[in-house]
Amino acid sequence: MGCERRVLLAFSGGNDSCAAVGILRARGYEPTLLTLDMTGDRSLLARARRAAEALDTPLLTADVRTSFTRQVVDYFASGYLTGETPAPCTECNSRIKWNTLRDVSIERGIGRIATGHYFRLSRQYGKVFVRQAADPAKDQSYYLWGVSQSCLERAIAPMGETLKRKAGERLPAGLKSPESMGICFLRGENYREFLRRRAPNGIRPGEIVDRNGKRIGTHDGYAFYTVGQKRGLGLPPS
């Protein structure tokens, strides 16, 4: 196969990335898998290796722990601690995941890159645009708004026309796994405890006041809330 038929696929070993392997092959592509070591979690790397072996697909790994910590984990913590609401998955895609895919694909002479995200691509006016996936219940195009043109020009979107409920049908029973939820680097830890560990001066509770300065309640610390939040404040009905 020529360079344009070879695809470097971001691969976690989860259901969607495994399904993407089958879709790419059915379309005549030759996938090579790339697992990003973001946090040093050996269990995640081992899962990817097992899945790659079961799919009989070559697997590469890239150590991105330093840049991931600086550009995603630190960004997440500092955002909350300065009163913002960060979007770590968006930051990871635009700064880490897709850039690494692009760079490794160039180094390896692989013409295309892909992920297991649910989104579609369109080409207009000399540029590549990210579009909503066919499955609106699973659409992940909003995670990719910051991905550069240099990445999108090499990209294909194997999951774009796939319904989530159909993706699992493409997998052997031994490869099906529970859906991963939450933020990867928290590893199940409550984000409030994570922020407390990262706050140099601690996170202190305080008062909630209305526009007239009247005290109407208390909060656990400003880092645990977001602009415009209406629920979870513990305030009496207005």
What's the order of the H and E elements? EHEHEHHEEEHHHEE
Number-wise, the strands total: 8
Task: Using the CA coordinates, give the radius of gyration.
Answer: 21 Å
Number of helices: 7
Biggest β-sheet description:
4 strands, parallel
Report the β-strand fraction as a percent range.
15-25%
Helix content: 25-40%
Strand order of the largest sheet: 3-2-1-4
- Poorly predicted regions are none
The coarse overall form would be elongated
Helix and strand content put the structural class at alpha/beta
Mean pLDDT: 92
Report on this model:
The chain has 238 residues and is an alpha/beta fold. Helices cover 33% and strands 17% of the residues. It has 7 helices and 8 strands; from the N terminus they run βαβαβααβββαααββ. The strands form 3 sheets. The chain has a 4-stranded parallel sheet with strand order 3-2-1-4, with helices on both faces. β7 and β8 form a beta hairpin. The longest helix is centred in the middle third of the chain and has 21 residues, at 88-108. It is elongated and about 65 Å long. The model has no long low-confidence stretch (mean pLDDT 92).
Short overview:
This protein is of the alpha/beta class and 238 residues long.
Core attributes:
elongated, 4-stranded parallel β-sheet, 238 residues, single chain
